[in-house]
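name: query_chain
kind: protein
chains: 1
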Amino acid sequence: MPMPPEIRAACLAAAFGLSVLAAPVVAAETAPTPPKPPSTEAAVPDLLASLPDNDKIDYAFGAFQRGYYLTAFEIAVERAKLGDAKAQSLIGYLYANGLGLPKKPEEAIIWYQLAARNGDPQALVELANLAALGVGMPVDKKKAATYLEEALGKGVVEANYWLGLLCIDPSSGILDYARAAALFRAAADEGNVDATYALAALFREGQGVVKNEAEAARLMGEAAREGHIAAQVEYAIMMFNGTGVARDQKTAAAWFKVAAEAGNPVAQSRLARLYASGEGVPRDLDKARQWNGYARRAGLVDDWLEQQLSAEAQKTAEKPPALPGVDAGN
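structure:
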């Protein structure tokens, strides 16, 4: 799971504030630096010590955003000792991801639990992630669901999506497609494009909701336009086949190209097929080979496409060359 939005927002908000304190100084190597007049500015530790306590955690997040992880840790520890839940969550994140510190998920769990008890519900989302993946603790998806339910109860809207994923995971022990659909809908309404994509898939398959290909296509198109690459591929397939939306091979090819250029191997392979067959795009075997090559390098092999390109290559090889000065058409 990504870093909680509140921490990301705090990092961005504090980034400029930290620049004066944390920007590295590079000395000139080609000529001696002339002596500077005595500075009237306080040293960094003195500046930090003079900050109001409430500002120190902002500087910790600012240091984190700029990659000064040890500085972030040192400032956060000072606040964490005073019971600052956000600082405790930040320390947990540093330990969980090995940022500036040895990677110690067990230590991260302790800090996240402390942060959750002290009032940071985002820490519950991080604990759910660790429980679901079995990092620092045995895999326990029911415990992960419990953490997410608690986070939801405390207003963490992003927990809707993560809990929805557990509800469609057969290994979670809480399989419930109808609940997942409701959770994805709530997350989508909050702007979560991954949730929009997941909800579209449920409508397409009729899981947890009445099957509705038109609604699936609408949602898939919405996610595609928001930049969701998997949705762009699925939407292109639906549009190419006329599933829930008017059949439009040309626009489908355009969506495949968008996703292919973003590096999606499935889109690259499908686009290669279109160039090989001349559907939605002008037939172009060179481009077909190019995109097929990208897909193959990613490990995706299309036997049909390989046969088509091989057959075309054989035809070209067998065609007799034109004699110099003679019209090959005569």
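note: The longest helix spans residues 5-22.
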